[in-house]
């Protein structure tokens, strides 16, 4: 699977991407729980997409890392597609 093939609303994404750029995490409070989220630019040979990193994922990933998204999810925010692990997916740093 490649970035160019991803569609908003698509699930069960299995893809390996490189972290081209990483923003500082920001904290939030929702439903009485606090957490953190960071956006990253992920790329492969076919293009780029915004990757949302949640909580411990923010500390796991560095710029230049290759990450494997397993059972990921694509959403759309302000007209831009965003990839994340969603509720049931996983993120692994590829060595």
Structure report:
Helices cover 5% and strands 60% of the residues. It has one helix at 56-60, and strands at residues 13-22, 26-30, 33-44, 47-54, 66-77, 80-84, 90-94. The chain has a five-stranded mixed β-barrel. Strand 5 and strand 6 (80-84) form a beta hairpin. The longest helix has 5 residues, at 56-60. The two termini are 19 Å apart.
List keywords for this structure.
95 residues; mainly beta; OB fold (Dihydrolipoamide Acetyltransferase, E2P); five-stranded mixed barrel; 1 helix; 7 strands; globular
- The name of the CATH superfamily reads Nucleic acid-binding proteins
Order of helices and strands: EEEEHEEE
Average pLDDT across residues? 96
Tell me the CATH architecture: Beta Barrel
Summarize the model shown.
This protein has one helix spanning 56-60; strands spanning 13-22, 26-30, 33-44, 47-54, 66-77, 80-84, 90-94. With 95 residues, the chain is mostly beta strands.
Present the secondary structure layout.
Layout: E1 13-22, E2 26-30, E3 33-44, E4 47-54, H1 56-60, E5 66-77, E6 80-84, E7 90-94
Parallel strand pairs: 4-6
Antiparallel strand pairs: 1-3, 1-5, 2-3, 3-4, 5-6, 5-7
């Amino acid at each position: 699977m490649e970035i160019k093939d991803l569609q908003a609303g698509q699930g069960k994404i299995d893809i390996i991407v490189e972290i081209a750029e990483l923003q500082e995490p920001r904290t939030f409070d929702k439903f009485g729980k606090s957490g953190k989220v960071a956006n990253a630019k992920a790329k492969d040979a076919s293009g780029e997409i915004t990757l949302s990193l949640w909580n411990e994922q923010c500390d796991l990933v560095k710029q230049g890392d290759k990450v494997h998204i397993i059972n990921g999810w694509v959403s759309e925010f302000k007209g831009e597609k965003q990839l994340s692990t969603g509720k049931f997916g996983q993120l692994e740093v590829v060595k």
